[in-house]
Amino acid sequence: MIDPNTCVGAVTLKVADVQKSVEFYHSVIGLMVLGQTAESAVLGTADRPLIHLRHLANGRSVPNATGLYHFALRVPTRQDLADWLHHYGMKDAPYWQGSADHGVSEAIYLSDPEGNGIEVYRDRHRSEWPKGRDGSLTMYTEALDLQGLLGEADRSAWPGMAPKTDMGHIHLKAADIATARQFYVDTLGFDQIIELPNSALFVSAGGYHHHIGLNTWHSRQGPPLADDAYGLAEYEILFAGQDALDATLSRLKAGGVSIGQFGDRHTVEDPFQIKIVMRVNES
Q1: What's this model's pTM, rounded to 2 decimal places?
Q2: Fewest CB within a 10 Å sphere: which of 20, 67, 85, 208?
Q3: Tens digits of per-residue pLDDT, 31-74?
Q4: In the prediction, which pLDDT does 282 show?
């Protein structure tokens, strides 16, 4: 069992145009530029980095490969979501994909200029999360009341993404759900929350609705994302302390998983060659 305080950290993307991506994440998403060179950039809030960008020259797109489905920026309150939605609408809602009420959360979906999926959402209080007759957590997809949400927005000058915004979860494209379950649940130690047979899997730590989602909707039996392909380079799993990290590393080693180490960063690949960086949470 993975430590209940485990969460998802920053996401690293390989992009063709760093400057265009920086402008989007700053002006549209509302993140701060925490650092930038000609070849890379880091964006986030005053509290934490959330997005790392790496320039990839002469890359290619592989739509059916495993990798990123979307990453999910979680804002602290419904007011924050309403204010962000109003700001996004004032920018003419570029790369809009849709919205949904999932019972546990309210979510807006879009992409960045290079097609990387993004969710901006807020959680309902855990006491409001829907449950089945057996007491297990459920999620659904219904229409989100966008007009009602916009009606709550503060229409004064928007200061940017709320400082307490974090990476609530990440949703990945997998080649096979059974293989995903074996790694993320049986080996890594996340709790299985919901499985749609041969379609999708949602796992979490500490009773959350999901920290990691995996689906085969566009990637069933697809190839791993190649090094020269645009998209996800890696994502972080953060642990509350060294003991929690060490316990997971021991479990991975016992399961025969190869682990790399670079300073305080420990790296593994899931069965779909998606790179995971594991480290102690410093936030």
Answers
A1: 0.97
A2: 20
A3: 999 999 999 999 999 999 999 999 999 999 998 999 999 999 99
A4: 86
Asked whether residue 2 is assigned to any structural domain, the reply reads no
CATH code of the domain containing 17: 3.10.180.10
Q: What is the DSSP string of the chain?
A: ---TT-EEEEEEEEES-HHHHHHHIIIII--EEEEE-SSEEEEE-SS-EEEEEEE-TT-B--TTSSEEEEEEEEPSSHHHHHHHHHHHHHTT-TTEEEEEE-SSEEEEEEE-TT--EEEEEEEPPGGGS-B-TTS-B----B---HHHHHTT---S----S-TT-EEEEEEEE-S-HHHHHIIIIIIS-PEEEEEETTTEEEEESTT-S-SEEEE-TTTTTPPPPPTTBSEEEEEEEEESSHHHHHHHHHHHHHTT---EEETTEEEEE-TT--EEEEEE---
pLDDT tens for 93-132 read 999 999 999 999 999 999 999 999 999 999 999 999 999 8
Asked if the model's pLDDT at residue 283 lies above 80, the reply is no
**Structural domain count, the chain:** 1
pLDDT of the residue at 130: 95
Judge whether 185 lies within some domain. yes
- Residues 240/5, Cβ–Cβ less than 8 Å: yes
